[in-house]
Amino acid sequence: MRSRVLLTGTSGYIGSYLYEALKEDVDVVAMSKYPEALKKALSWIQGDIFNLEDVKRAMEGIDFAVYYLDPTKRSSKTTEANFNDLNALAADNYARAAEHNNIKEIIYIGGATEDAETLKILRHYKTPVRVTGSKIRRKGIMAQDQSSRKDDVRVLVRYKLPKSWSLEKFITHYFNYYNDIVPKVSNVEYKNNSYYLQARTIDLVILKQISDSSNNDRQQFEISGGTLVQKSRDNKGRLEFRRLIDSNEVIVGIHDYVPAMPKWFYQFCQSPFHHVTMRVLDVEMRIQMFNDENSQGMTRTYTKD
């Protein structure tokens, strides 16, 4: 019986070449958020590599999984993230899903500038990882806007936490921080397992916790409503907090979010405001980490790194 192999990135130049090289020896299954862009003869499953549940589903019945994240392709209309964070999240999803489905082996295509971190993440889990002898030299490119079937947005920000902090403590701090962004204007309410991010009494964004996908190193919230959210049956936006294994780093991700306001408003008002507030939070977290280390008797000079 021929092995079944999962392959990502097949809509790109290198991914399509990998498919051609493998198809004669194994049954290749491609995962893509928009499978209509793939070759018609290709066996595919619809899914987003940045969504853990999608990757778990894609790996059902798979024997081997090839990890290759296209350095130029993105699955959202607008992406506000650096490639290192995109790759770290995708690798963590891949390794978790492989372990969940008892995949025999992950095959990693070496040659990326992020090889060291990628392999550290992949190898943390139980699935064996093999690196190809031949490498494909590549460097992630920040392509903010790409073609997509809807005007969705993906935003990733990585934070360093004090070592004594749990993910739950960071999430509490995260929402308390929003509460204080604009005194007497910004406000956060928590009720019925949901956070309501408000401007005075107007619900801007409503975040409902997804309990069946939350644990000590991962919590998810559905972006379920609010005046800044385009309401549609097809829109499944979510906010995810993911703690990277064996580290004090958390990736906060906004996925599949479709703004309700016109694109110009998002680009020139909403996005810059969010970017500034997240940068301020990053500085605050570094100070928290510095103070935490000092309280434990560690002597360190504070720097921006």
How would you concisely characterize the structure shown here?
InterPro entries: Epimerase_deHydtase (IPR001509), NAD(P)-bd_dom_sf (IPR036291). The protein is α/β, with parallel strands linked by helices and 305 residues long.
Lay out the secondary structure.
Layout: E1 4-8, H1 13-22, E2 27-32, E3 43-46, H2 52-58, E4 64-67, E5 78-80, H3 83-100, E6 105-108, H4 115-124, E7 129-131, E8 153-160, H5 167-179, E9 186-191, E10 194-199, E11 202-209, E12 218-225, E13 238-243, E14 249-257, H6 263-295
Parallel strand pairs: 1-2, 1-4, 2-3, 4-6, 5-8, 6-7
Antiparallel strand pairs: 8-14, 9-10, 10-11, 11-12, 12-13, 13-14
Helix pairs in contact: 2-3, 3-4
Protein name: NAD-dependent epimerase/dehydratase family protein
InterPro entries: Epimerase_deHydtase, NAD(P)-bd_dom_sf
Pfam family, one: Epimerase
Mean pLDDT: 88
The helix/strand series, from N terminus to C terminus, equals: EHEEHEEHEHEEHEEEEEEH
Low-confidence stretches: none
Number of continuous helical runs: 6
Name of the top-level CATH class of the largest domain: Alpha Beta
CATH overall fold name of the largest domain: Alpha-D-Glucose-1,6-Bisphosphate, Chain A, domain 4
Beta-strand segment tally: 14
Fraction of residues in H or I helices? 25-40%
Q: Number of folding domains?
A: 2
**If classified by CATH, what would the architecture of the largest domain be?**
2-Layer Sandwich
- What class do helices, strands and sheet pairing give? alpha/beta
What is the general shape? Answer: globular
Content of β-strand: 25-35%
Rg over CA atoms, rounded to whole Å, is 20 Å
Distance between the first and last residues' Cα: 52 Å
Strand order of the largest sheet: 5-8-14-13-12-11-10-9
Major β-sheet annotation: 8 strands, mixed
Organism: Macrococcus lamae
Protein name: NAD-dependent epimerase/dehydratase family protein
InterPro entries: Epimerase_deHydtase, NAD(P)-bd_dom_sf
Domain NAD-dependent epimerase/dehydratase: 5-112
